[in-house]
Amino acid sequence: MSLINKARIRQIHAQLAPIMIFPLLLTVITGSLFQVAALTNNVDNFIWLLDWHRGKFGRINLEMIYPFLNAFGLLMVGTTGITIWLQTRSRRKLPHEFKKRYSKDVNQKQMGIIDAVIIGGRRTGFRSGN
């Protein structure tokens, strides 16, 4: 995957995640609270929770599309999030594989220099003078 695609995936995720958190939280909270009302035999007083859970917000009735919008948003955020996570995992693996492969041929000081180059100088205790 090219660098442009990685940046685009992060951009899509950054735009969708804040937008999708509200309807998903609303669905989870209202569904859970309605279940509590059902368990306590108090459904009649909390029927409005079920309306919100389904996407009926007073005069605005989104019952027909609300579940599909929630599902689409969750799939997009989940897919982009997993893709970003997999990309960061593969980047973290590289130095360890490199060290395993080449550590027999170099001494400890050289390994520190290699780590600094690969990881960008973030190795704990690495000093350029040593």
Describe, in plain words, how this protein is organized in 3D.
Helices cover 72% and strands 3% of the residues. A two-stranded antiparallel sheet has the order 1-2. The chain has 4 helices and 2 strands. The protein is elongated, with a radius of gyration of 25 Å. The chain is mostly helical and 130 residues long. Helix 1 runs antiparallel to helix 2.
Concise overview:
With 130 residues, this protein is mostly helical. It has helices at residues 3-39, 47-54, 66-102, 108-119; strands spanning 56-57, 60-61. It is elongated.
Which percent range describes the beta-strand content?
Answer: under 5%
Distance between the termini: 38 Å
Q: Oligomeric status of the shown chains?
A: single chain
Low-confidence stretches: none
Total of DSSP H or I helical runs spanning 4+ residues:
4
Q: What summary fits the major beta sheet?
A: 2 strands, antiparallel
DSSP summary, beta strand count: 2
Based on helices, strands and strand pairing, what is the structural class? mainly alpha
Radius of gyration from CA coordinates: 25 Å
Give, in spatial order, the strands making up the sheet with the most strands. Answer: 1-2
C-alpha geometry:
elongated
Order of helices and strands: HHEEHH
Mean pLDDT: 76
Q: How helix-rich are the residues, as a percent range?
A: over 70%
